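**User:** Everyone, produce a chain:

**Assistant:**
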Amino acid sequence: MRIRTTVAAVTGALALSALAVPAAQAADSPVSGKLPLSSAGTAAAAAELDVTFSNMKVNKGKSIVVGTTAKVAVPVTYTLTHAADLDTSADNFANGPLIYRGSSVESATNVIISDDPGTCTAASSTVLNCSAVINIRPADGDLSSSEAGTWKAGGLAVTADGDAKWQGDLGTRKVLRAAKLTVNASPEPVKKGKTLTVTGKLSRANWDTNTYAGYSTQKVVLQFRKAGTTNYTNVKGITSTSTGALKTTVTASTDGYYRFTFAGTATTAPTTVAGDYVDVQ
């Protein structure tokens, strides 16, 4: 996997961080439920902690939409139940959420974990209410385009002694490729009753090249909003070409705005472009 989870000592406290490793190394070292690493980067003997993650909510229940370069900060809240005798002070204990691609944490092909430990408040002697942020950095190779779709949520807790607990299957969340639309209606102005040509392009993020590329053979809807009104209505549906290009014609009838809207797919987020105003004379 490209993203590895490690435990690092920072000013005497534990912190969770993500460590990118070469694909060849990743193939030989799958995630293990007992694979905490010491600050020196060597495997540490570990026992599984008596802790349980629950009530995990990733990105406030919404899909995670990722573009080509900008970092995406994903908020996560969760509950952590622990043994009463576990020392959860900051210099001994850290925990954080993660998302992973695969059927289980142990067999995951990609794992992305929070940069920093969760911030927790004690609800009782055995229950912590926590929040954290998982940062996704497409420009750093965190994702490949083939990984768009459903990811699972999980958590990792560790102690200063290297004892750890990995837990998966804490819910699912869509991680989607961002999409873009353009639109242009011409000629402008246009005489009433004449043909108006509306063109544009549908593209989506390619996480392998960190660029936007045309999204082919996708259904897109042309919409119109009459000047002075607030609601758009559907005019017709069209399909993008092999390069993502869009082109259709309508009869000009009244001043207003034309736009394209895309409903999204299982791997790509929906998007709508701002309307292009046309003066009909």
